[in-house]
Write a structure and sequence with these properties.
519 residues, alpha+beta, Peroxisomal Thiolase, Chain A, domain 1, nine-stranded mixed β-sheet, two-stranded antiparallel sheet, 39% helix, 15% strand, acyltransferase activity, transferring groups other than amino-acyl groups
């Protein structure tokens, strides 16, 4: 699957937003059932005894003597039990299945080695020598490999950063993953009832959801949501929103598209905290097809078990650690504060405190509770016990935000190199693709043949604001490696590779087509 240019659009249609009508109907139906059960209970206690002159009264009389209630009361009680069972069935959360997913791989023309990246940074002429040296040092320690992808706008001479090229980048990613996903899942666009799109830093008018509806000719009542400004954790937020909407809208599909735009968000100034993103973020995107249809369980890959969202925006330090801003000369970029790792750790602890009781075995919960009691009740200076989440999960998909983030989570969660491999290989091959990185990691597990029926997968994402979000999936079937359309399939024979902590860049290995070199 390579890059695609913007194609012709279908006839324009309209979209609608979510209403609460279905929720109101469900609540009213449950109230009616409860009132009916109360009425039936009254009937049970007030039912008169049987008359001896009624046909079959002797047999019914024996039944009355046996159970202590009149047959009429027994019949009413049975009917009440059936009504209660129905009320329970209709009020249960509907299962949400992941039918399939698709990850974007740009064409060879968009590949950029680290030497090529530095060469283009230098030739654009906007960075000081100190900024170039800093970006080179960061890139050597970033964990990124030699085949990450840039949009054409940033590796052209000169750079071409404008709304037109930004749209071209996003259109190529969106159409690429959606085309591939709908084809492999054999689902028509008209069957999609819920559409959710997230891109944090680019939100044009008309929205990207409108673009998708127009391109694929989706139905007029599709429920669409366009999420922006929610950072790298927006992919899990989109999944959580889709899960909630699938509880309301019956027998339908939800299409979730996650990406980020690089063209207009490359930083062309010399403020050091804003230069870090240049060395990490790359082109990528993913599309995920969810379903609440019972018939899809047999072919679905996963069932969504839990989503846990943590938002620490009420704390000033958390709110301000990742911000889009202008520098002193008016260049726009995303600034990362030095407190980012501390903030991320606090958000993770809050998130796993909620998630732990839902997934951990009782032995781990008791150990954690014991340290809490010792510290808070008995004032003992005991180090808090960090539960072993390897007892709850088989696979870990940790947002590939950077080498530092992955190193810290590997240490704090006591994970092995095998557990961290999907995240590290995603960072190496694709870079930080923002909210879509989790899906490259899950696709890596599939391509390697790691996913077995019954396995549990934990996705962890961090984002500005500051947010930490988790999703827990259960594999419904074994996923064979080498599937068509998996972004990793063509290179499974050479992965994993060793990624050194520091990998020097030889800038002389790249020459511009006109024969020039940066140096």
């Amino acid at each position: 699957m390579g890059s695609r240019e913007v194609l012709g659009a279908a006839a324009p249609t309209t979209t609608t937003t979510t209403t609460t009508q279905a929720n109101k109907v469900a609540v009213m139906s449950r109230r009616v059932v409860i009132q009916l059960l109360v009425l039936l209970a009254v009937v049970v206690f007030l039912a008169p005894p049987l008359s001896s002159k009624m046909p079959g009264s002797s047999l019914l009389k024996e039944m009355e003597n046996l159970v202590g209630l009149s047959p009429a009361a027994v019949a009413v009680a049975c009917w009440a039990a059936a009504a209660a069972a129905w009320a329970y069935a209709v009020s249960r959360p509907r299962p949400v299945y992941l039918v399939d997913l698709s990850g974007y791989v740009a064409g060879a023309a968009h590949e950029a080695s680290r030497a090529k990246t530095i060469a283009h940074f230098g030739r654009c002429g906007r960075f000081s020598d100190e900024s170039m040296a800093f970006q080179k040092r960061m890139l050597e320690r970033s964990g990124l490999g030699e085949r990450t992808h840039f949009p054409a706008s940033l590796i052209s001479v000169p750079v071409d950063m404008c709304l037109r090229t930004a749209r071209e980048e996003s259109h190529a990613v969106i159409f690429g993953v959606v085309d591939d996903l709908l084809r492999r899942a054999a689902v028509a666009p008209a069957e999609v009832g819920v559409l959710i799109f997230n891109s944090s830093l680019l939100s044009p008018t008309p929205s990207f959801t409108s673009l998708i509806v127009n391109r694929y000719g989706m139905r007029h009542d599709v429920v669409s949501h366009n999420l922006s400004g929610m950072g790298c954790s927006a992919g899990i937020i989109a999944i959580d929103l889709a899960k909630r909407l699938l509880q309301v809208h019956r027998d339908t599909y939800a299409l979730v598209v996650s990406t980020e735009n690089i063209t207009l968000n490359a930083y062309m100034g010399n403020n050091r905290p804003m230069l870090v993103t240049n060395t990490l973020f790359r082109v990528g995107g993913a599309a995920i097809l969810l379903s609440n249809r019972g018939a899809d369980r047999r072919r679905a890959k996963y069932q969504l078990i839990h989503t846990v969202r943590t938002h620490r925006g009420a704390h000033d330090q958390s709110f301000g650690c990742v911000t889009q801003e202008e520098d002193d000369v008016g260049c726009v970029g995303v600034s990362l504060s030095k407190e980012l790792m501390v903030v991320a750790g606090e958000a993770l602890r809050t998130n796993i405190t909620t998630l732990g009781p839902l997934v951990l075995p009782m032995s781990e919960q008791l150990r954690f509770l014991a340290t809490v009691v010792l510290n808070r009740v008995f004032r003992a200076n005991v180090r808090a016990y960090l539960p072993d989440f390897k007892l709850a999960f088989d696979h870990f998909c940790i947002h590939a935000g950077g080498r530092g983030v992955l190193d810290e989570l590997e240490r704090s969660l006591k994970l092995s190199a095998w557990h961290m491999e999907p995240s590290r290989m995603t960072l190496c091959r694709f870079g930080n693709t923002s909210s879509s990185s989790l899906w490259y990691e899950l696709a890596y597990c599939e391509a390697k043949g790691r996913i077995r029926k019954g396995d549990r997968v934990w996705q962890i994402a961090f984002g500005s604001g500051f947010k930490c979000n988790s999703a827990v999936w259960k594999a419904l079937r074994t996923v064979d490696g080498g599937e068509e359309g998996n972004p990793w399939t063509p290179e499974m024979d050479v992965l994993p590779i060793h990624v050194p902590k520091v990998s020097p860049i030889d800038e002389t290995t790249y020459t511009f087509p006109d024969g020039a070199t940066y140096k």
